[in-house]
Design a protein that fits this description.
It comes from Opuntia streptacantha. It holds the Pfam family LRR_RPS2. One of its GO terms (biological process) is defense response. Keywords: Plant defense. InterPro entries: At4g27190-like_LRR, LRR_dom_sf. 11% of the residues lie in helices and 18% in strands. By secondary structure, it is α/β, with parallel strands linked by helices. The protein has a single domain, classed as Ribonuclease Inhibitor (Leucine-rich repeat, LRR (right-handed beta-alpha superhelix), Alpha-Beta Horseshoe), CATH 3.80.10. A 5-stranded parallel β-sheet has the order 1-2-3-4-5, with no helix packed on it. Strand 1, helix 1 and strand 2 form a beta-alpha-beta unit. It starts with 12 loop residues before the first strand and ends with a strand.
């Protein structure tokens, strides 16, 4: 995401979709593993107000961004038609305000990993009150 997103401090809803070539939502530093000072930018700038995040039709998206953990006000996360996404990060546990998670038309592997009690990613999402995974 562009660093200019930091100027959108009142942004409450963000939809990223229909980007067939998009492979990552991380900034340059995250992709290359560079310095801590850039870790999570611009996600960190959106932490107080972003309530809803929708990621759809991103067929090459492999990972959710590391900076997602900073979105302390996030209440709703919708992930749909992100077929290359095969797991959810441990940082999902830090999204304590998240009330609803919807995952649809993603990989079978992701669905399996999110299976209640037995899925590898279940510990990362079990705290979320409402989950729709289909």
């Amino acid at each position: 995401l562009p660093k200019g997103m930091c100027y959108l401090t009142a942004l409450e809803l963000l939809h990223i979709g229909d980007c067939e070539g998009l492979e990552s939502l991380s900034n340059e530093g995250e992709r290359e593993g560079e310095g801590e000072e850039n870790d999570g930018l611009p996600w960190r700038c959106l932490r107080h107000n972003l309530r809803e995040l929708s990621l759809s039709d991103l067929p090459k998206l492999v990972n959710l961004p590391k900076g997602l953990r900073y979105l302390s006000a996030l209440q709703y996360l919708d992930i749909s038609s992100c077929r290359a996404l095969e797991s959810l990060p441990e940082s999902m546990r830090e999204l304590t305000s998240l009330k609803e998670l919807s995952i649809s038309s993603c990989s079978d592997s992701l669905k399996e990993r999110c299976r209640e009690d037995t899925g590898e990613d279940w510990p990362n999402i079990q705290h979320i009150p409402k989950k729709r995974i289909r």
